[in-house]
Design goal:
Elements lengths: L33 H13 L6 E5 L5 E5 L3 E3 L6 E3 L1
Antiparallel strand pairs: 1-2, 3-4
């Protein structure tokens, strides 16, 4: 059974928390220049973005890659794969 809350009986830290240093916004891309980062992002946008595919294995023993979806059918036996 939990103890009732008594006003004024707040918990206190028994040890000091470590200081967290925040990284520079300019150093967020591993030292690459802003121009290089923007070029990489533009190239990714032009290519249409990532094509998300997953490796599925069916109970019939067939393994295949297909787009990530909630309902994928095995191309070998037709059984639907539960995600």
């Amino acid at each position: 059974m939990a103890a009732p809350y008594i006003k004024g009986n707040d918990m206190q830290l028994t040890a000091a928390l470590p200081t967290i240093r925040r990284r520079d916004r300019g150093a967020s891309h591993g030292g690459r220049s802003r121009h290089t980062v923007l070029q990489t992002q533009a190239r990714a946008k032009r290519s249409g973005g990532p094509e998300d595919q997953a490796l599925y294995s069916c109970s019939c023993g067939y393994a295949f890659k297909a787009p990530v979806s909630t309902s994928v059918g095995c191309p070998h036996c037709g059984t639907s794969q539960a995600w």
